[in-house]
Amino acid sequence: MQEMVLNEKQIDEKINVLAKKINEDYSKFQDIPVIVGVLKGAAPFMHDLIKKLNFPMFLDYIQISSYSGTESTGVIHLKKDVSVSIENKRVLIIEDIIDTGTTLKYVVDYLIKKYNPKEIKTCTFIDKKPMRKVDFNPDYVGYTIYENKFLVGYGFDYNELFRNVPYIFVPTKEDISKWDEMLENSK
Ligand code: IMP
Ligand code: MG
């Protein structure tokens, strides 16, 4: 049996809580923040979240890759940089999940070094605690998990599949073998 981690209703509830906090914090600023989503995983979460934010914002995306199958490779590639100017701006990075912490730390360090923003805050939908290798604490977290589970759905992929599934689950060994076969057949 697949383990359901968060269903659609639970996802919506977590996002409401996050949006409330972010609205409280950001509504007091006079300047317009830039919301930067980390592609591709953060897209479903980011697009649900921003609909509930009630202040003006610029939107942008950065694309990073570090995963292969169910394991983080630890090697990070920047595939797409930001395209709006973030120099001297307030930046909020939106990520799907923090696992080892390598990706988000890399994104934050990269953006600070290259563009010198006024402030960088980070928001992740899921904080997966046990695998942390880099000391990094996000400013906003939707949901924390304390076991090392590989998640699929709602942006989380298995070799690029199932990002569209509207809920988050842990696949079974049988799922993985079936998907590997499907992927093999569609090469
Ligand atoms: P980190 O660099 O190890 O923190 O990994 C972060 C990235 O790995 C995230 O942006 C995700 O895209 C991916 N990732 C981490 N855990 C999972 C998972 O359980 N399922 C799918 N992708 C994951
Ligand atoms: Mg990601």
List keywords for this structure.
single chain, alpha/beta, Rossmann fold, 32% strand, binds inosinic acid, nucleotide binding, magnesium, HGPRT, Hypoxanthine phosphoribosyltransferase, purine salvage
What does this structure look like?
By secondary structure, this protein is an alpha/beta fold. It has a single domain, classed as 3-Layer(aba) Sandwich (Rossmann fold), CATH 3.40.50.2020. It is 29% helix and 32% strand. It is built from four helices and eight strands. It has helices at residues 8-26, 43-50, 102-115, 173-185, and strands at 3-6, 34-39, 58-68, 71-80, 90-98, 119-128, 140-145, 168-170. The strands form two sheets. Strands 4-3-2-5-6-7 form a six-stranded mixed β-sheet, sandwiched between helices. It has a two-stranded antiparallel sheet with strand order 1-8. Helix 3 links the parallel strand 5 (90-98) and strand 6. Helix 1 packs across helix 2. The chain is globular. It starts with a strand and ends with a helix. The mean pLDDT is 94. Magnesium ion (MG) binds at residues 38, 41-42, 95-96. Residues 2-158 form the Phosphoribosyltransferase domain. Pfam families: Pribosyltran. Its cofactor is Mg(2+). Belongs to the purine/pyrimidine phosphoribosyltransferase family. It catalyses: GMP + diphosphate = guanine + 5-phospho-alpha-D-ribose 1-diphosphate; IMP + diphosphate = hypoxanthine + 5-phospho-alpha-D-ribose 1-diphosphate.
